Amino acid sequence: MTEKPIAAGKSSFSLIDSRKLYSEIGLERNITMLDVACGIGAYAMAASPYVGLSGKIVAVDLWEDGINRLKNEIQTRKLDNIFPRVADVSRHIPMADHSVDICLMAAVLHDLVQDNTDQGTLKEIARTLKPDGRLAVIEFKKKDGPPGPPMKIRISPKGLEAYLQPFKLRPAKTMDMGEHLYLSIYYRS
What we know:
Elements: H1 18-24, E1 32-36, H2 42-51, E2 56-61, H3 64-77, E3 82-86, E4 100-106, H4 109-114, H5 118-128, E5 129-140, H6 157-164, E6 169-176, E7 181-188
Parallel strand pairs: 1-2, 1-4, 2-3, 4-5
Antiparallel strand pairs: 5-7, 6-7
């Protein structure tokens, strides 16, 4: 992976209804959530009230500037349940084995595939998920944009299933997340 990820500084967060997202993935108090390739942390910050003070959100990205911006925002907002980390998620996610209830990958898998870092990242995600853990993947619909990446690198729900099958992640449901995005939820099998 490059020092500055392909889509560093871009976010799909403004294109979704975060309340619907967090309801669908079952985000609640006492949950440990992992936000993979979090960028500046928009999804993590919006998730903070859902997990409460007894929950924990670990937001990880290779982009050091994005993590520093997230740290500043956390301090400004006085959020005590978000823990930002700089890490190459394709090599190691700084979480213990089987410690994550919900992992969120928001509009990032297509970039990881393009960068040839998807397999290492998915292996790390599978390692960190609890036996009953969930992986929530948001991706751009397989249609011409903008917004989003070029059509040739977009991943359909069926394509997503093919990427995740080797990691023993089974599909639970896929739904619209607005005009441009969909959400697929997977469980460990």
